[in-house]
Structure formats: structure tokens, C-alpha cells
Amino acid sequence: MSTDDPDAGTPTPRVPDIEDPRPSTPLTETFRTGTANDPPRPERSADPEDGPTTLTVDGETVVVPPGGTLLDAIEAAGSDVPALCHYDRDTEAAEEIGPRTTCRTCVVETDEDGLVAACSTPATDGAVVETDAAEAAEAREHNLELVLSDHNLRCTTCGKNGRCELQDTSIEEGITHPRYGVLDDRGEYEPLDPTGAIDIDRNKCILCNRCVEACNDVQVEGVLRVEGTGEDTRIGFQSDAETMADSTCVSCGHCATVCPTGSLVEGGLVDATTMPLPGFTQRNSVGSVLESEQEKDRAESDPDEGLSGVARFMEQAKRTAGSAAESALRTGEHVAEDIAAGVFSEGILFGIAKRVGDARLDRLDRTETTCGYCAVGCRFELYSDDDRVLGVRATDPDAAPANDFSTCVKGKFGYGFIERDDRLEKPLIRDGDGFREASWEEALDVVAEELEGIRSEHGTDALACFASSKCTNEEDYLMQKFARVVLGTKNIDNCARLCHSSTVAALSETVGYGAMSNSIEDVANADCYLFSGTNTTESHPVLATKVKRNVRNGADLVVVDPRKVGIAEHADQYLRSKPGYDIAWLNGMARYIIERNLHDAEFVTEHVHDFDALRRKVEPFTPEEVERLTDIPAEELRTAAERIASADSVVFGWAMGLTQHSHGTNNVRAMANLALLTGNVGEPNAGLSPFRGHNNVQGGGGDMGTLPNVLPGYQDVTDPEVLDSFEESWGARPPEGLGLTVPETFEAVHDGDVRGLYVMGENPALSEPDIGHAETALEKTDFLVVQDLFMTETAEHADVVLPAAAFAEKSGTFTNTERRVQRVGKALDPPGAARQDWEILQSLANRIEHDAGRWSYGDPTEIFEELTEMTPIYGGMSHDRIEREGGIQWPCPDADHPGTRFLYEDGFNFADGKARFVPADMGEPGEVPDETYPLTLTSGRVLYHFHTGTLTRRVEEITDHVPESFVEIHPETAAALDIADGQTVRVESERGHIEVRAEVTDRPGKGVVFIPMHFADGAVNTLTGEHYDPTSGIPEYKVASVRIEPVKTD
Amino acid sequence: MSSPGVDPGPTIRVTADTLDRPAIIEAIEAVADVPVRRVGPAGTPAPLSLYTADGRTAIHTDPRPESASQAARSLENDGLPTDDAHAVVEHDPAITALPVPESGPVSVGTRQVLGPCGWVDPTVRPASVIDDIEPDTVLDRIDGVGLRGRGRADGASDGSLSALWNRTIEADGEPVVVVHAADTDCRTDELLCRSVPGHVLDSARLVAEVVGADDVVALATEQSVAPLEAVADDAVVHPAPESFLVGEPTMALEALEGNDRIEARRRPPGPEEWGLYGRPTVVHTPRTLLQLRKLLAGEEFDPESADPGTRLVSVRGAVAAPAVVELRTDTALSRALSAVETAGDRYVVGGQFGGVTDSLDVPVSAPALSASGLGTEGIVEVLDSEDCIVATVGERAAFAREENCGRCVPCREGSKQLHETLRAVYDGEFDPDTLRALSRVMGKTSLCAFGKAAVRPVRTALEAFEPEFRAHAEGRCPAGACGGLR
Fold it and tell me: Model's pTM, two decimal places?
């Protein structure tokens, strides 16, 4: 509790022996929101069988649907009442918020019940409502002014100026001189809390409670609460923290998104619409500012350590001058404010402020776009000026089907990298150990010459291209076209190889399409979940919020993972598994379900081949045998299997924890077998859900044919008819036959078979297993061209580096994990001479010798037109149509087809329409612990960073939270090795060693350690080994043998 | 032939409000061999010791060890100790209620609910009223009579019991009955729990039968916990935090749920549909439950009455000693004064947020009291000539400002403005328009009864005592109490 009152928040014990029927998760049970157990809102307690309600508002007869409130009726009648604290967004997630019914600025007169709050009173048949009855109007006016009486009204310095609901309401209601005044006694102000990504100004808080509800009920994180009573009521933290930075906040941004006033403002937007005078900031206006514990620790250490004499004196003088200047500005601002308050009425101040706000807003750009980080595909509006993204705000619900108004730290705050000084702005050409800047002409000529040269001397097979899962569909379509008909090589692949290639392979074999069979909406409404190898709350945070809400409302959740990850805290059952032995429990569940006759026999008979083969394969995996192999208790396995088999609908969710093994394809086969066995494919709220990684790995890393075995739309690259049709469109025939995967490419480089490599938007120098070996390969190439935003670890090895555009600087489409193609909006121009990836490809295509004719695409829309013609599953799409409909899910074969929410409703993607069980052989990791390397390393992700960190390591809000690599060690393991929390340790495998900070936690199991993949310093892939899945080629990132010892410091 | 809790032979009773009762009982037991019963408080201004034999009872007040042991010895050997008795009453030897003398505090009003208080043994369960009744018929009977709930802590406060029960029966979920005996403002419920806990819980179980509840919970003040637990059986007795807020029914449920911050719940629907843990919950005060039991046990109730039955009134403040009196609802409130010694002539009626008045000439029924702008809580606080009306109103406003839960704007912010506006009177600024506007806004749009009631003192004082405010604004305190005025 962050209040001073020692008696505040001392709970009375709850009454014993009385049953609490409300569902929850083990984690939500612990939330202490400080708010009352309100009844469900009218919208949620209506009986769907009920008909609509007819009533009268201000003489108008109106009809509202079941669950409608008086506020709905008032809107239907065309009348208007303020309803300030009401969160006015008509979506399911928004219904988690309120009605708090605190401000009472929506009260109206009713015939039966007198004055009532319209926001929370259900509409009843025959009710007569008067909005303008004298007492109602008086009460609304006074209540609005009572809100203002405790509000620090300083619009001109407020981060929400021009966008504030209180300001808008006050102006609409004609408030010129609030009769109860405003909060303008500086002595009463609470200090501002700028320690997190969001600025918190409690003096502007109207206690609407939206932030608390968004945090606890939408994000389901349990950070914020209401504390205190009477005048001391405020928003605080459920932990002991005093500041946001010290709290358990995950910077998801929900609170700032829903806050109606300038109380919570995104850091980048605090000055966006204020009076543009020096010193006119919200911080100065409030006066005092909180420091986090971290900052206090930093301040305590001598800032001038290392300086002496004159230098030290000058530093101190600069700081004193700096703070004196700050102080002068602050005083100036206070004086100006006080004069204004004395001279102008609040009404006039509102007018001035609103005009300033509107003028500044006009000069900002607001671009609707799709997030460029992960494959959930959140959509929102970027607010930007000429140089940078200032902030992210919610967009219309119709345009944001995957996320509504939800975000995570990366999508909401991860934009600082765009404006960094170390953005590549000019092409670079290798010069000795470094680079020299060059013109585009020169650089492109060099690239064309070198690639042509290698081709003529060694053949097309000596060239290889890596497409980018971060680029748009348009750009990746061009990349594989470039590889195939400009360079003429079969070798095109991308980083999906390293991530869900096991999924694509296994699902193609079992159900026919290598993609998520259902939609995010299905995931949100499942009856039961089996999740394994997905750290959902950290890797797919917005998707995880939907799962959390559903589990909180009663859905079952089984999580199987070697680490007790965040989502496991909400599970009905968490089973700790041994890394690399998952086939055992997957087959074990199948065996138990079959033995008990719990499987969907009808579904299996009608729709799936090879049941007997499955039954035979899983026979040895008794619960006891599974326990022997995996340490999962037999009884737990049985309970979990029963839960899954008896649920109405099950969503099977997984990510890298299942795929990134030397038997990853088998893991996914086993998972798919379970889903088919229980009849959970091809119907709503069920299905196979691989959670894909990059923002466009589904589209640009798969659908667009950037794979060595398929053309766009997963058409077979060995099928002559397919090749015919591409030849007709492209003007040249794509090479027939399978090309090399990413790992095979590296092998081929080592063997001298591949000599030229073109890498677009990928960082294999950090993402390959055994990066030592990978870097040798990169060095060994005759010619390496890297196209990216920064001098990445891979670009360091390049011969030519081409500067490209970030996702906020692009127009085009991304395809998210639920097969939904969405529009990407261009908010900014790329910096300096950096260009769009598609423009670079086009320039190169027109410089290199080939038979396919000149490329003359004018814009990404033209490219998209072509790709839809060649990609049947995208056949009915167009940029226009996508914009109008807010995204379209493939398959969408023609313009009349609405898109496909979930696959396999009418049969599986095989000629006979039936799925197949593909029995999974037991797998073991490629390396197991031994005496030299007795621990098992597993790698993965953290919430704040993305993949190899090229973007997120360049964002301050992110590095403030997670600045460096670390290794999670179980307390017992740490004790045995004499390692203390926070100590630097050396982690070594057969491939190499790194030094990182130890984090002692019981998240991983005993003998298992975890290191994130995001850092170059302490790069985990220094340790991982080249053990590949024979079918998909995926490396085994999830299991490696290591040893750890403390680093000796002398 | 005796009722549970009532002895047939000679008996001594010492009420629970007696100072140092253990010493007195020890003194009695040292000299006499008569059964001594520790009975609950009787609601009289003074604690009582009662000596009963053969259909006669000597009532003594303020027992001391000396006088009590003397009286006990007398009872055993010489007959009733009538010397120094406050009253001597002849009665049916099997009487189950405190014998009522011709005059004195015990004779004021009627003693139906109060009857057994101070008489029956609180640790003995009475015969259950459920045994003779069909739960199915209760709803109709109560509906026919139109019985109302008593106390702000009651879910049907001043409203229809049967309507409340019907909503619970219709609602989804497993119902619960909560006995709310934790109001710190009106201690009458505490008195009833200490005197007749068995009667209270018996009635609660009956309500549970009617609405289909398996669980009965009693939320009790400290002094009520042990007496209730002694006769609880399955009912769960839970201690309540000492808090005015918890007197509001939804906040009582918040306390029961173990919430570490108590605030009012949104309504509609009320707790009778969404109550404890979201289950349909009927919340009743002991006062309501005993009215109900009295009706079902055969007492006559006038269905034509706007507020059938009796009401308990606690008289306190500028009195020699406080008392609890039971009056029929057609009786004038002023009758309650007969039970106490007082010289006051102005009153706050309704408790912490009662109405300020100089006339108690109003029937003790909920509709009549409300129509007069007074509170229905069953409390009359007497003010004497040294109590300043303005200061009293100011104190009540300060209480509202300090104690409100903070959830809703009209109450949280309104009470602050109300208090500040009253304070300004002392600076010479009397703004009756703002005071009246705030009374209307808070009174009509606050989320719960706390905010709505909080304006009663100022609203009634403005109506009846406006000159006092003007005087203070001019620097004068008519009561001579507000020192240091400008």
C-alpha cells in the first residue's frame, strides 16, 4: 500500500464457511483493487431471450436492445447528458470498464424512481425519462462543477489539452465560472510521477476508476488500485511501490489509453498540445516530481565520479545552472498561470486552451496502422510530427479486430528507435575494417555487379536470399520474385525457418494448411485451453489478455512448460515439463484419452485417417511411463487429459517451446493429433493455434512464398503447371526444384557452395544457433549485402549495407497470426537517404541482367494487385477492400468471399477432405546434460524486448526496464553452485561462453536455466548448438547443455 | 410449566449493563442460594437487578455488591426485597417478559419486542417460531400486513419486506441471510443481540426458509459476538469492524467479503439480488427480525397502518442516562422523553445524520418522520441550551466529510463543499442558496444512503433555525457555545 496511514487497508478477515461461487484464476484471486464487488452491468446481466425495451425519453418513444441502459435510450432519442466517467466505447473489452457511476453527471428524472444515474440504470418497459427536469439539470451541473472543484485545471500545460473529456464536457455544458472553484492551491498538489512510460498527475484525476478497471479487468495485471477514503481517495499500487517505475506495471498502456483527463498521459504526448512556450509543461505546472527507487540509487552514487579538478567543477556548475534554469522556468510558468487565473474566467481559459490544443493537433499527423512488432496484429493510431512518433492512441473498434483498444509496451511505447542517430541514412560500402558512405547509384551498381558476377562464375545455386518477416507482404512478394526470376536462384528462405517451420510442416501434413486454424476471437472464447511452450503474457501480451479474461470467467487452462511462465499463474493446472521430452506427455494424453474412450469417435471416423497407426504409436506412453520420462505426475496427466477431452471446445496453443527442438515437427504433429482426436478442429472457439512471431511472418514469411519449397500461396515449386502460370505473369520461369533453407544456406556457405547472400531485414548473426559458427559463414561469403535500419550485428559483416525504412515509414499490408491481412499506414518518411525496401528491390531488379522484363511498380498498391492475382488464398483482396472491412482473413479466393474466420469447417485441405493422424516418434534433445555440462539451457523472450533487440535495445522506455541479459537459475541450483542473485556468472557450452547477471528464481525447474535471446552482449546463441529437425530444419534453441560458475572478480 | 430461558422458582436477574456485574453476582452467590441469571440489557436508563418469587418481582436500579447481596438474602429468607425497590410488580408467575410497573421508564410505551429483554436467559434458545408456521404462507402474510424494515442497515430500510424477499427468490444463485447487527450509530440492535440473541437468530432462520437460503450469517459488534455465538448452531457469527460506513448494507457485505477498502456498491440491482459474493442476500437488522417474529408469533398488526408494528427509539444526548423505548407507530415521538430525565428542548432525530428540530410532536412511523424531514433510525438525541445548532450541524458535516467512502462525487466532493460553506458562516459568509443546492444534489444523487442522509442536519436546520446561522454570520452564538467567533 502506498499511503501513509498505518490503518488504511487493514483487511477485515472474510467470513468463513460461506461459499464464493465467483470464478477466478489463482492470480486474479490475489488482486486487491480496493473497489466494491459491484453487480454485473445491465449489458451483461440481460437475458438474451428478453425482447427489446420500449420507453419514452423527453417525449420521444425509443427502443433499446436487451441490457440497454437509460443512457442508451437517451442517445437513441437524440438527447444528451454528460456522463463523464462513463467509458464510451461499444465493445466487449470496453464493457469490462465501468459503469463506476461516480461522477453522477448523467442523472435524469424518471417517473418511477426519481433521479437516477442513466449510465447504470437498466431501461425498463414503459419508463418515462426526462433529461431536462429542473432537479436533474441542477444536479448534473453541480456534480460537474464538483468534479472541477478537485481538479487541477491547467489546460495550457496539460498533456491532454484539446483531447480531454473533462475539458470537452465543461465547454459543452457552458461552464464559465465553476462555483466551487478548482484545485489551485499549490500546497495541496501531489507530486507528478514521471518515472514510467506514462506521466501520472494525480491532481487531475477525477477518480473515474477506468485505469484501475483496465489494469485489473482488461489487461488482468493487478497493478493499480483505489486506496484511501474521503478526500484521501486516490489511485495507488497494489504493491508497496510509491512510483510507477517501482510497481509491477508492465507498461501495457491501457490506463493511459482509457484515462479521460491529463492524469495519465503517454510520455511522448505530454507536450504535444500544450501552449508552446518554454517552461509551459505539466511538470513545471505541478511543481514537484517523484523519483523512483532506481533513480534515487543512481543519484546517490556520485555523478561526477571519475572527474577531478576543473572538469568536476564545471560539471557541478553546469548542473547547478541547469537546475537554476529549470527553477526559473518553473517560477515563470507559475507566475503566468496565477496571473491568467486571476484575470481570466475558467470559461475563457477553456477557450484559449482549446484553440491552442486544436491548432497543435492540426499540425500532428494521425496515421492508422498495424503494429510492426508481433503477429497479434494490433491496430491503432500513430501520432507523429515530421521527425518522430510521439505516441500511440486507440483507433475505431472496427479497424482493430485483433486488439480493440489493447496494447503492450512495445506497440504502445516502442518507437524511440525510429528517430535514433544511429539510423542508417546512406548506403555503405565496405572499406577495410569499416565502411564508407556511398551514393545509391554506386551501392546498387556494386550489388548488381557482384551478384551477377557470382552467378556467372558459380551458377544461380551459389546465390541465396533471406526475406524479412518484418517487411510488408508487397515487399516480401517482390523479394521472392527477385530471387527466383531476377537472380534465377531457388534459394529463398526467411527467419520463419527458425521459429514455426515445424508448425508449417506438421500442420500441412495433418490438416492441410500450415497456419493457425482459428481466429483470435475463437481463442478468446474457448471452453478450455492446452498451452505448451508459449510464454503468452510476454510474447503475445494482447492475445494473453483475452485468454486471461476468459479463464477468469471460468474457462479451463492447462499449461505445460519447463518454466512457470506468467500465463501459468492463471492456470487450473500447471505441469512442469522437462525440456525436450514433450512427445511423451503429448502421446501420453492421447493414449489416456483413447483408453478411456473419451475421444470424439464420430469425428475421427468421419474426418481423420490413420487412427489405428496413432493408437499403436501412443500405446507405450502410459501415465507412469510419461512420469518417468518427463517428471509430470501421472495423476496430473490423467486429470489434464480428462479436462481436455470433456471440454466443449479446446484451443491448443503453442509457440517456440514446442517447435524449436530437434524433433519440433514431431511435437507439433503430436499436438495436432490431440486436437483431431478430441474433435477440436473446424468449429468455433476451438482449434490449432500456433502463435506466430513477427508482425508479418505469416504473410511475408510464408504466404508470399518466401520459402525454398513453395511459391506464393504455398503453391508447389516442383509443379509444372504452377510454374507455367508464374512464368506467364512474371515473364520468366521460376527455377524448378527445392532451394536451401536458412541453416542449409549457412552450411552451403561453409562448404563454399553458396557465395553470395542478400539479407533483407534479418539478423542471423544473433539469431542463428551457434552464432560463432554463423559469423564465420558470414565472413566467408564472397559477397554479403544487408538491408536494414541499423548497423546490426549481421550488417557488421556486410560488403554493402543498404538503409531501409521502418514499419512506421511504410505503406502496405501485414498478415497477422490469425491469417488476417491488415493495412499498414505510413506516418513518417524514412530518414536521410533511406528507402523503401520495395524500391530498393525494384532498383536492383532493373540493374541486374535477367529475362523477366523491367519492373515499374508505382506503389505498394500495384504490387498488391499483382500478388493477389498470383496468390489464390489472397485472391479476393485489395487495399481498398481491406481498408473498408478492417482486415480480411485468408482464404479469400474472390471479391465476394468474406474471408475465413476458422479453417476446416467443410473439410480439411486435402483432395479427399480428410485430415490425417501423423504419429509422432518419441524424441530426445540433441544434447543431454553430462558431467562437463550438467545443466540444461533453454532460451526465449521477455515482455519488453523483441527478438534480437535491434529495435527494442534502442528504445529508452524499454532499456530502462530490461537493460541487459541475464540467466534465470533455480534457488537450489544456485545454492549448489554458490551463486547469489545479481552476481555475474559465466555460462559455457561446447560452442562458447558468455558472462551475464544471475537472477535466482524458481521460475525454471531445478537444473534448468533460462537466458533471453535479445542481447548481443551475453548472446544466448553463442551457446546453442546446431541440432536441426530433419523435416523442418529448425534449430534446437530450447535445449542445450551448459555449465555455470561465478565470475571471479579480483 | 416454564418457557425456555425462564425459571419457575425464585430468581435473581442482573442486567448486562450493570457496572461490574461479576462482582455483584459474586456477592449475591456468596450469601444466597437463589439462581442468578445474567440477562441482557433491558433498555432502561439505569441497570437493573430483579428479584422474583411467586408472581411478584422487585425491580432495583443501579445494583451494587452490598445492596444486591442484601436483597438476595432477603429474597431467600424474608420474602421480596421491596425496601428501596424502584418498583414492585405483581404478575403471572410464568411471565416471559419483564414485569411492567405502573410508572417509571419501564412503563413508557409498550414492551413487545423489548419484553423479554432483561428477563430471558440469553444463552437459552427460545421455542422456534418456525415450528408452528408454514414458510410458504409467511410471504403472503407479510405482504398483506405491509411490514417494513427498520434501520439504515436493513436491506428493506423503511420499505417492503415482502418485495425484497420476492426479488431474492427470483434472483439467480444460492441465497444468503445476513443479520446486520453492526451499526455503530444505533446501538439498539446490539442491545437486542445481547438480550435475545436466540430470538434474533430464530427469526433469521425463518427468513432463510422463506427465501430458500441455507446460509445465515450474523455481522456483529464486539459486544454481540459472544451472545450470538452461544446460540448460533449453524449460523456464522462474524465480528464487524467498528465503522459507521459498515452500517450501510452493501458496505457490510464488503466487510464480510474481507475487502481491504470499504466502499458502497453500485445499485441497481440491490444486495437482495447481488449480495454476498454475488449471491442473492437478504440483509435484516435485529429490529426488523424481531418485528417479524412478533407478528408471526401472533401479535396483532394493523394492516391499515402505514408502518405496522412498533418502533424502538433510543433517547440519548443531554439526558441523565440514555434509554431505549418501544412505541407503537401511531404514538408521538415525544412520548419517548418520558423514559429519561432531561431539560433539553431541541433534538436531532435519526442519529448521526438526523434532522434538527424543536418539536417531537410527530408519530413514530417511517412515513410521518420522513415527511417531517426527520430520520427514521430510531434515535432521539437531546440538545440542551448550551448546544449550538450551527456547531452541531457543522460537526455532522465534518463527520460526513471525513468518513465518506470516497466513491461518488456528490458525497465526496459535496460534503467537502458543504463543510467549507458552513465554516464560512463563522467568517461572516452565510450562503443558504449553496447550502440548499448541495442538500438537493447530495440528497438526491449520492450513490448510497450515507450521502443522501448527510444533508439532513443542514437541510432541517436551515428550515427550522435559519436565524441561528444569520446570528453566527454576524458574530453571535445564541447558545453562547461557539467561542472565538471573529
Answer: 0.95
